[in-house]
Amino acid sequence: MSTTSIHRNDPDLRCITRAVRNQRLYWRVGVRRRGVVYQKRFPDDRYPSSEQALSAAQQWRDQIQSEHPAYGKLHLSQTLRVNNTSGHPGVFLRKVTRVRNGKVQHYRFWQAQTPDGVKPFKSKSFSILKYGDEHAYAQAVAARKEFEAALLQD
Prior knowledge:
The chain is α+β, with helices and mostly antiparallel strands. The chain has 2 domains: 2-67; 74-153, no CATH class. The protein has 4 helices and 7 strands. A 4-stranded antiparallel beta sheet has the order 1-2-3-4, with helices on one face. β2 (16-21) and β3 form a beta hairpin. The radius of gyration is 24 Å and the shape is elongated. The chain starts with a strand and ends with a helix. The mean pLDDT is 86.
């Protein structure tokens, strides 16, 4: 089986590829939603033309996407990842070591970052030495919530 992606940036062909299996040409639709893959083949020889097979594939894709909408940016930005140790998405405990004037200095701070894909990237840091661990963490969580609120305005 071979698959070819035609016009990758064409929105009409989103989630649709052209493929050949056992010398049969077909359009393959593949949509993933919440870990479930919906896929279907539209062989040219079952339709009067390749264009009509493509049209059927597009209609099926659109139906699946309307029945199973994608997560929005806000939902994705609030998902806790497996490697997160802070308990809050986008908030990290950072430890930095610097040498200044011949002395080694260690800094610990909580940092909040903008959600993935938000441009421009921003971060805010809160020193544990200055604010204390709990207060610095609370400020970082609040800063992250401000960053997420900006997603609602887009």
